[in-house]
């Protein structure tokens, strides 16, 4: 049983000047908070934080980490708050305990390997200080060592999570010893039968072969002495899990099990390592394909060693790992061996952070003269460019930073994206453009009538979502253009008494289509709808001389002139045009025409018919192509408010502004915005008013112009978007 004094003794061995008071305080606080709590084993709860702290001391971590080990469960399991921890132990300890508590909340449910990898990265991405991960690993290690006290179902879940998430994380951080123990413990609980069988078989083999470990070790030692190489030789049985997974990989059963012994030589330098390898290969025959030079080519986690497998007397194979003491330290403890003081937080600006992290590890290998240098803190953002989120079912999705619920929706399914009306993040409704954070649980809400809009393309960061949105919009735009083109040409045909449908039925249009390079009639319609081809130029070709003489029908003239549009209620709603049923129209934003005002329609490229004020400068612009103009007229003038912007030029005299305001108010008109600039004895006021129609506007303008001191009243056409 670990006592608090054992921890102090251990820390003292590698850091004699450690902050004992901090550890005392943490110990007393933890003991008090956990008082009365018991573990499943029936022991006092405090046993657990003590063991975790001891494991951390074994990793030779700083006293902050060890204090966090003592305190790691107080936020989760007691009434202590983070504020309280901060007050008592400072921000560092409070943040670290909070970090451990947060990652402990996410339980991994075994899924496919892809999910496990994403989950692992998510856990790493959530921490800004690697000490959080180390404390979590120590916590998991002690829980695994005492797993037998839990009910079976829980045991399996924890062991699975350990095997798929925590052992690989330990491996990634180069912590070979912890990784090995976590794997063996998980294996034992996940496959108890296989574990016992294998263990029995290995023990039996060892007893049959006598003191095989000792004999090989003695031989190795003798050979090293003979060649005047200093080296420390150890021998052991490989870990149960590594033997078992290899048996599974090679599809062999226990009867064929030979390769279960491993020896390690710790040499003084790299040259001696290679010399040892040569000596071993002279003595025993190496197994082809099993010689690995991880010194020349380190593993991604910076593991370095020479590996070989040779066959000794009686056909007994065994593996030998040869490395220097420094390499051995990294192989066993990985990142924990590399604990260098680092001021401040690294990783705010991303790219360097990853580099720095790798670079430090590399640099350390060249500069390992004093591995005892105590390394204090390594704050780092491991995945600064990614964010990890959950579905309500616990699937993890990784996104680039800045991704929104819309990206999430498209990640689930294209249709879910198209129909996305909203999202709940961690149970709360949020705007669709809200950036997601690590650990967010995202639920997408869909509606049957929802469709993508133009703004959506700016609200996503994944190319998949953007592509899907654009694709949909383009298809939609094309459909609308086809629809518009069809209506325009049918109207035009009717006007000249051309029987359009009959022409289609008789394939009379084939020539025109070929001439324009259109494969299908829809393509022609689309180009007319886009305004690339005018309806009249097509219809004209089918007008007989007789029809020409008669001229356009009266009905045609009337209909062409009286295209009525309904006042629109919101900028997002398409405006209907009478006679065109469901024509895609909208009020041009440059002039926002008012009911009663003279207006013209203009076939835009792909967006339908824009309705402008006849006075709009854009309409008079030379760019305006007469072929694309269609006549429109106001329909029934329902109650509705339009924003009109006026500019008043006045003498800058006292009370004039008050008279302007009261004049407007007397006409029962709302002022939405008002801004006045003064200078040179003159004042200019910009007004945005709510106006019902042209008559209303004229009345307001007349009344204002009549005021004493008002010099000019002008309507401005660069009006902002109507949001009424
Ligand atoms: Mn714990």
Polypeptide structure, described:
The protein is an alpha+beta fold. The longest helix has 33 residues, at 463-495. The protein contains 29 helices and 21 strands. The strands form six sheets. Strands 1, 2, 3, 4, 5 and 6 form a six-stranded mixed β-sheet that branches. Strands 13-15-14-16 form a four-stranded mixed β-sheet, with no helix packed on it. The radius of gyration is 40 Å and the shape is elongated. Bound molecules: manganese (II) ion.
Summarize the structure.
This protein is α+β, with helices and mostly antiparallel strands and 724 residues long.
Which helices and strands appear, and what pairs or packs with what?
Elements: H1 4-14, H2 20-33, H3 47-58, H4 63-71, H5 74-77, H6 82-89, H7 91-105, H8 113-126, H9 130-145, H10 152-172, H11 176-190, H12 192-208, H13 212-226, E1 231-237, H14 240-249, E2 261-267, H15 270-283, E3 285-286, E4 292-293, E5 306-311, E6 317-324, H16 325-333, H17 350-366, E7 386-390, E8 396-400, H18 405-412, H19 414-418, E9 420-425, E10 428-430, E11 442-446, H20 463-495, H21 500-505, H22 510-516, H23 521-530, H24 535-539, H25 545-550, H26 554-561, E12 564-565, E13 585-587, E14 599-603, E15 609-613, H27 617-620, E16 629-631, E17 633-634, E18 642-651, H28 656-666, E19 671-679, E20 682-691, H29 694-705, E21 710-716
Parallel strand pairs: 2-6, 12-17, 13-15
Antiparallel strand pairs: 1-2, 3-5, 4-5, 5-6, 7-8, 9-10, 9-11, 14-15, 14-16, 18-20, 18-21, 19-20
Helix pairs in contact: 1-3, 2-4, 3-4, 3-9, 4-7, 4-9, 6-7, 7-9, 8-10, 9-11, 10-11, 11-12, 18-20, 20-23, 20-26
The chain binds manganese (II) ion.
């Amino acid at each position: 049983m670990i006592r608090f004094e054992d921890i102090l003794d251990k820390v003292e061995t590698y850091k004699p000047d450690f902050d004992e008071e901090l550890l005392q305080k943490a110990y007393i606080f933890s003991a008090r908070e956990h008082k009365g709590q018991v573990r499943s084993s029936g022991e006092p709860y405090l046993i657990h934080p003590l063991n975790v702290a001891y494991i951390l001391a074994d990793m030779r971590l700083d006293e902050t980490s060890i204090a966090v080990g003592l305190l790691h469960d107080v936020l989760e399991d007691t009434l202590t708050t983070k504020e309280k921890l901060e007050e008592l132990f400072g921000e560092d300890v409070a943040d670290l305990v909070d970090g451990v508590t947060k990652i402990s909340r996410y339980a991994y449910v075994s899924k496919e390997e892809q999910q496990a990898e994403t989950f692992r990265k998510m856990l790493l991405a959530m921490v800004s200080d690697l000490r959080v991960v180390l404390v979590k690993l120590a916590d998991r290690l002690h829980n695994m060592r005492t797993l037998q006290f839990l009910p079976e179902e829980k045991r399996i879940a924890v062991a699975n999570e350990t095997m798929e998430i925590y052992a690989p994380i330990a491996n990634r951080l180069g912590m070979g010893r912890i990784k090995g123990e976590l794997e063996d413990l998980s294996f034992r609980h996940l496959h108890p039968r296989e574990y016992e069988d294998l263990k029995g078989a290995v023990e039996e083999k060892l007893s049959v072969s006598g003191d095989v470990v000792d004999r090989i070790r003695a031989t190795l030692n003798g050979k090293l002495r003979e060649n005047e190489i200093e080296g420390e030789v150890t021998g052991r049985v490989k870990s149960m899990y590594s033997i078992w997974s290899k048996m599974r990989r090679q599809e062999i059963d226990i009867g064929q099990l030979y390769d279960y012994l491993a020896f390690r030589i710790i040499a003084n330098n790299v040259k001696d390592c290679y010399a040892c390898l040569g000596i071993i290969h002279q003595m025993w025959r190496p197994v082809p394909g099993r010689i690995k030079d991880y010194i020349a080519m380190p593993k991604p986690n910076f593991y370095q060693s020479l590996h070989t497998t040779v066959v000794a007397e009686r056909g007994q194979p065994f593996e030998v790992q040869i490395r220097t003491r420094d390499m051995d330290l990294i192989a066993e403890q990985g990142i924990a061996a590399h604990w260098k003081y680092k001021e401040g937080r690294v990783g705010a600006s991303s790219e360097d952070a990853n580099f720095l992290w790798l670079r430090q590890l590399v640099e350390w290998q060249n500069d390992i003269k004093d591995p005892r240098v105590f390394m204090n803190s390594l704050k780092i953002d491991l995945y600064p460019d990614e964010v990890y989120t959950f579905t309500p079912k616990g699937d993890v999705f990784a996104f680039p930073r800045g991704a929104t619920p819309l990206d999430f929706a498209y990640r689930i399914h294209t249709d879910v994206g198209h129909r996305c009306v909203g999202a709940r993040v961690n149970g709360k409704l949020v705007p669709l453009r809200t950036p997601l954070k690590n650990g967010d649980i995202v639920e997408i809400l869909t509606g049957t009538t929802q469709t993508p809009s133009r703004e959506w393309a700016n609200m996503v960061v994944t190319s998949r979502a953007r592509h899907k949105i654009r694709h949909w919009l383009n298809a939609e735009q094309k459909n609308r253009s086809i629809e518009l083109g069809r209506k325009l040409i049918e109207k035009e045909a009717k006007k000249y008494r051309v029987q359009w449908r009959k022409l289609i039925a008789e394939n009379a249009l084939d020539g025109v289509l070929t001439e324009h390079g259109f494969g299908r009639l829809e393509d022609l319609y689309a180009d007319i709808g886009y305004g690339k081809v005018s309806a009249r130029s097509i219809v004209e070709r089918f007008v007989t001389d007789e029809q020409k003489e008669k001229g356009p029908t009266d009905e045609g003239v009337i209909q062409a002139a009286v295209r009525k549009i309904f006042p629109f209620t919101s900028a997002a709603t398409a405006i209907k045009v009478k006679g065109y049923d469901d024509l895609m129209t909208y009020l041009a934003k440059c002039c926002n025409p008012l009911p009663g005002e003279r207006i013209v329609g203009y076939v835009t490229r792909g967006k339908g018919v824009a309705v402008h004020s006849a006075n709009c400068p854009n309409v008079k612009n030379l760019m305006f192509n007469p072929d694309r103009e269609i006549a429109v007229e106001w329909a029934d003038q329902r109650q509705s408010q339009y924003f009109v912007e006026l500019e008043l030029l006045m003498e800058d005299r006292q009370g004039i502004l008050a008279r302007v305001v009261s004049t407007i108010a007397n006409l029962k008109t709302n002022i939405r915005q008002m801004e006045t600039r003064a200078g040179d004895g003159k004042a200019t006021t910009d007004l945005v008013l709510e106006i019902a129609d042209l008559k209303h506007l004229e009345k307001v303008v007349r009344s204002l112009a009549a005021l004493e001191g008002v010099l000019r009243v002008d309507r401005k056409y660069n009006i902002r978007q109507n949001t009424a």
